[in-house]
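Narrative summary of target 7.
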Amino acid sequence: MRSIFSVLIADRRPVVLHCLSNLLDAEQDFRIVARCSDGASCIEAIRIFLPDIAILDLSMLEMSGLAFLAKVDSKRRTRLVLFSTSVEKRELTALTGVGVDSVFLQDQEFGTLAQTLRQIAANQKVSPLPPFGEAVNHAKTMAPERCLALTERERQIMHLVSEGLSNKEIGRRLNVTDGTIKVHLHHIFEKLQISNRTSLAALAISRPI
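Modeled conformation, tokenized:
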């Protein structure tokens, strides 16, 4: 029987919080025990629930806050995974020094995140970050002409995805089938050269069009 891993998600951005929660809820071996939108509630929730994994927005906690988390969870039951748009090698060294198990970049595939979480929860050794080069913010460096290539309908769908709506909900809003929405999303992903809804939502927030 597959193990069930408890997960806490903390992010300032409601859209990212919603998208991550929905994606993990769809996986049978993850159970969301808390969703937090600020550092104080995150620390308190970890203290109360002692989840197997805490996925944290890197911008939400200072280094001192991460160090405090390690002290709060004195048995070190909770594994810390940071969710970020970018991280530099020198930052990674400091983060691993205060107990961070891995950093996940927002333009990576969700399947990679799910697999990494399973490995971490099972106490398997994982690389703190996929092979280097310097990670950059995909949304900020994206060529503007890619966004301009979207049709008006594709921009509508991009905006609705950023609100955390499912394909069915978007279809109802636009009076089309969810299959049609899937086709539109496929075209949007190809034009923007991204591969998942979380990246699309982050892009919609960071580069309104």
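Residues 130-140 have pLDDT under 50 and may be disordered.
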